[in-house]
Amino acid sequence: MRYFNTEGSCIPEEHYMVQLDDRMEQIQKLFVDRKKYFVINRGRQYGKTTTLRALENYLKNEYIVLSLDFQEIETESFADSVLFSQTLARKLYAAFQYVEAEDQEKQQNILLDFRKENPNGGLNELFDCITRICGCSSRPVILMIDEVDSASNNQVFIDFLAQLRACYLKRDKTPTFHSVILAGVYNIKNLKLKLRPESDHQYNSPWNIAAAFKIDMSFSVKQIVDMLQVYEADYHTGMDIQAVAEEIYTFTSGYPVLVSAICKYIDEELSSDEEFDSQQPFWSRRGVAQAVRKILCEDALLFESMVCHLDDYPEMKKMFQAILFQGSEFLYNPDGKEISLACMFGYAVDEKGKVQIANRIFETRLYNCFYSEEELSNAMIREAKRDKSYFIHDGRLDMDTVMRRFVAAFEEIYGHNSEKFIEDNGRKFFLLYLKPIINGTGNYYVEAQTRDEKRTDLIVDYLGEQFIIELKIWHGNEYKERGEKQLVSYLDYYHQDKGYLLSFNFNQKKEVGVKEIQIDGKCIVEAVV
User: Fold this and answer.
1) Would you state the CATH architecture of domain 21-193?
2) Neighbouring residues of 481: CB distance < 8 A, sequence distance ≥ 6
3) Residue 282 phi/psi, 5° resolution?
4) Angle CA(280)–CA(246)–CA(351) in degrees, nearest 5?
5) Strand 465-473, strand 498-504: pairing
6) Which of 184, 187, 246, 181 shows the shortest CA–CA distance to 219?
7) DSSP three-state, residue 218
8) Would the pTM of this model clear 0.70, i.e. be above it?
9) What is the pLDDT of residues 318-337, one digit of tens each?
10) The pairing of beta strand 37-41 with beta strand 392-393
11) Close Cβ partners of 499 (under 8 Å, ≥ 6 residues apart)
12) Exposure pattern of 56-75 as b/e (b: 16+ CB <10 Å)?
């Protein structure tokens, strides 16, 4: 029986996975058939290896595909040109064993002769050998290398790229690889970050011949639907496939391993989860939310990498903190180092010319990460932990009490601080206050399209019950009234009758406190600090 896979590449016969034929057709038409050399750069566990394996199978009837993985080459082999070339020749020989071609043995013998006759042969001699192989091949030869960034801190690999570039530029005269496909997290132009001091020309790359690979590798709602239809045909759960697929996409934005992780949890673990009401179908919006909550608590490799990258690149970390807590906007600029790195790692995307965190799961994990850094020192967190017993009644979250006690705690601790301090940190303090209250049971996320310096919409989900909260910086009564109407429309969208409005008001005559008002048939709990 097939299952949802989150470890390594996916195999159609063994795993539930999205259909990749359309993507393979695109890659062949736009890149391979046009003899392009290119790099598939995506974040960790984004389906790069699965894509390469599928592409190898898709192209095998028209091309000879030599598939390598640089993780299989030991570090010592990158010590110098001779060791690397001899190792690469051995790997190419092994790759030919998986190729069905009438001249396979002849091409393997060329590699054998190279290793026997040139035991001290380096890159120049190896590429002479490659020219002979490509020149006598009955079909065009494609070189495919996975995990190229495992070799990125070695000068010999840069020299290897330079040789590929030289062959590419004279391929009208000298036979060489028809197409070269590299895959890894790091962009090739960033390789010299590890080889040269910051002051050197770190972006000068021998790989400036590469075509830009802009094919979307995330999963669409339709692809998730198609995958779930195959699962449903096996198990007949009766799920609303479209609704479940849309909910999965809402949290993941199609990030492949996150999609699979949600499905895997629902399929394998939700039936034994004591906190889930077994009377409700597991494959449901609530089931997806429960899976997300559990995933956010795991020490997954993807999240471990995120934390390491935040420590390694403090400017990227500052950018995320400014986006999440202050509503700052950053125009997408691929030349900005922190922006380029955030997008390369898959944590951020270009959304209509602005930097946006890639999905809700990443966003919540970032909030949790920043929360943990302040857990011991932040006074609001201490207040929330102390008051936690006030907020949960019969398994339900009392959001009215949360608002009242937040106002009281905020005024006591920060009421005397300057306007600038509160404007920069006010919404951050509310999120830090909320986190220990719902921790382990509820989720929260911020609507990206409303996150700016004036307004943030927060959605809290606690055991299937949703709370809509608008956080605002005070900009006068007219702006307040407009915010109230926006909140009403948002409540209509979520089919809610009650919402919450938290205003950070710097008017000295402000009336601090909490009150209820009725607008267009909706109950609005307004809190002012």
Assistant:
1) 3-Layer(aba) Sandwich (3.40)
2) none
3) -65, -40
4) 145
5) parallel
6) 246
7) coil
8) yes
9) 999 988 887 788 999 988 88
10) unpaired
11) 467, 468, 469, 470, 487, 488, 490, 491, 522, 523, 524, 525
12) bebbbeebbbbbbbbeebee
Q: Give CA–CA dist 512/528, Å, rounded.
A: 5
Q: Is 521 exposed, middle or buried (0-12, 13-18, 19+ CB in 10 A)?
A: exposed
Q: How far is CA 435 from the centre of its chain?
A: 23
Task: Note the pLDDT tens digit of each residue in 166-208.
Answer: 999 999 999 999 999 999 988 776 655 444 444 444 445 678 8
Q: Which helix (H) or strand (E) holds 386?
A: helix 379-387
Q: Mapping DSSP to helix (H, G, I), strand (E, B) and coil, where does residue 367 land?
A: helix
| Residue at token pair 């699965």 | 50
pLDDT tens-digit readout, 42-62: 999 999 999 999 999 999 999
Return the half-sphere exposure (C-beta side, CA atoms, 13 A cut-off) of residue 527.
Answer: 24
Residue 250 token pair:
């809402």
Where do the domains of the chain lie? 21-193, 221-296, 378-529
Rounded Cα distance, 343 and 348, in Å: 5
Q: Look up residue 458 and give its DSSP letter.
A: E
Mean pLDDT calculated for residue range 231-237: 94
Window from 202-206, 233-237, 359-363, 485-489 with minimum mean pLDDT: 202-206
The yes-or-no verdict on residue 153 having pLDDT over 70 is no
CA gap 183, 470 in Å, rounded: 42
Burial class of residue 120 (count of CB atoms within 10 Å of its CB; 0-12, 13-18, 19+): exposed
The helix (run of H) or strand (run of E) holding residue 91 is: helix 81-96
SS3 readout for 15-54: ECCCCCHHHHHHHHHHHHCCCCEEEEECCCCCCHHHHHHH
Burial (0-12, 13-18, 19+ Cβ within 10 Å), 374: middle
* The token pair that represents 370 in the structure block: 């920043």
Tokens of 56: 């190898």
Distance between CA 407 and CA 385 in Å, rounded? 15
Please answer whether residues 22 and 11 qualify as being in contact, where contact means their C-beta atoms are separated by less than 8 angstroms. Answer: no
The Cα-based distances of 510 to 167, 401, 436, 471, 476 in angstroms read 72, 21, 29, 16, 11
The count of other CB atoms within 10 Å of the CB of residue 452 is: 13
Residues in the chain: 529
